[in-house]
Amino acid sequence: MGCDKDDGGWVVTDRTGRTNVTGVWTAGNVIDPRAQAVAAAGMGSTAAFAINTDLLDEEVDRAVEQHRHAAAAVR
Ligand SMILES: Cc1cc2nc3c(=O)[nH]c(=O)nc-3n(C[C@H](O)[C@H](O)[C@H](O)COP(=O)(O)OP(=O)(O)OC[C@H]3O[C@@H](n4cnc5c(N)ncnc54)[C@H](O)[C@@H]3O)c2cc1C
Questions:
Q1: What region does 36 belong to: left with phi over 0, alpha with psi -120 to 50, or beta?
Q2: Structural domains in the chain plus CATH codes
Q3: Which atom of ligand 1 is closest in space to residue 43's alpha carbon?
Q4: What residues does 18 pair with on adjacent strands?
């Protein structure tokens, strides 16, 4: 998918699991080979939270943009 990797071949992410590829998050052993099940699940939960926030931000941005267009059309 074109995600950046470190020297060991593991996908590089920020603290939420976000990769350099837009819309792609990762979790678990693909970013940390030492992660046991509970740690991998925790990363998945963190990534899910971040993805939800990202989608919400996108929706709010789109709604604001639509409102601006509608307001401009009325003027
Ligand atoms: C022998 C062994 C014993 C373990 N024992 C324990 C234990 O007792 N307790 C514990 O907490 N942890 C244990 N672990 C670690 C545990 O397995 C991992 O922490 C956990 O599975 C990580 O989850 P994950 O979702 O990151 O990766 P995975 O569970 O490996 O899930 C990745 C999934 O992606 C799929 N996949 C890969 N490539 C592709 C592709 N190209 N397209 C689509 N799907 C793909 C794979 O088939 C797999 O189903 C053990 C691991 C091993 C190997």
A1: beta
A2: 1-75 (3.50.50.60)
A3: 26
A4: 25
Nearest-angstrom CA–CA distance, 53 and 71 = 27
What value does the CA radius of gyration of the chain take, rounded to a whole number of Å?
Answer: 17
How much is the pLDDT for 75?
A: 81
- pLDDT by position in tens, the chain (length 75): 999 999 999 999 999 999 999 999 999 999 999 999 999 999 999 999 999 999 999 999 999 999 999 999 988
User: Distance, CA 29 to ligand 1 centroid (Å)?
Assistant: 7
Q: Give me 21's structure tokens.
A: 């590829």
| Ligand 1 atom 3, closest CA | 36
